[in-house]
């Protein structure tokens, strides 16, 4: 069963409902970025926030993409600075210039 859940989470074609203001505890009040029609031939940044275990998760996610979606280029990056503060403008600039999607990882 865990494999099924994992595939649902990682499946880029999965449907999701955008969050709206007041949609629940912890739900973002900003809209999600537009989802690309496909990831084929695109670059996905896998950002390790520095929380315990997120580096291993990103490596496993990169291996998943290599096996299941080999046309997707993945780039693993480690967020610099403090894990709870957004002080990584150089990384966000790089992703905007060279990336098509981001998986921002937190583990624990």
Write up what this structure looks like.
- It is globular and about 35 Å long.
- The model is unreliable at 1-16 (pLDDT under 50).
- Helix content is 31%, strand content 16%.
- With 108 residues, it is of the alpha/beta class.
- 10% of the residues are buried.
- Strands 2-1-3 form a 3-stranded parallel beta sheet, with helices on both faces.
What is the percent of helical residues?
Answer: 25-40%
Count every beta strand, where a strand is a DSSP E run of 2 or more residues.
3
Q: Can you list the strand order of the major beta sheet?
A: 2-1-3
Number of helices: 3
**End-to-end gap:** 21 Å
Largest sheet: 3 strands, parallel
Average of pLDDT = 76
Order of helices and strands: HEHEHE
Shape: globular
Integer-rounded radius of gyration: 15 Å
**Fraction of residues in β-strands:** 15-25%
Task: Provide a brief overview of the structure.
The chain is of the alpha/beta class and 108 residues long. It has helices at 2-10, 54-68, 89-98, and strands spanning 43-48, 73-78, 101-105. α2 (54-68) links the parallel β1 and β2.
């Amino acid at each position: 069963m865990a494999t099924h859940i994992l595939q649902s989470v990682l499946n880029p074609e999965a449907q999701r409902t955008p969050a709206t203001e007041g949609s629940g505890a912890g739900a973002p009040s900003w809209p999600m970025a537009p989802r690309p029609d496909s990831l084929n031939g695109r670059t996905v940044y896998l950002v390790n926030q520095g929380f315990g275990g997120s580096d291993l998760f990103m490596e496993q996610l990169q291996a998943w993409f290599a096996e299941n979606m080999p046309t997707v280029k993945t780039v693993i990056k480690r967020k610099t600075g403090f894990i709870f503060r957004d002080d990584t403008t150089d990384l966000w600039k790089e992703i905007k210039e060279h990336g098509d999607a981001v998986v921002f990882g937190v583990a624990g």
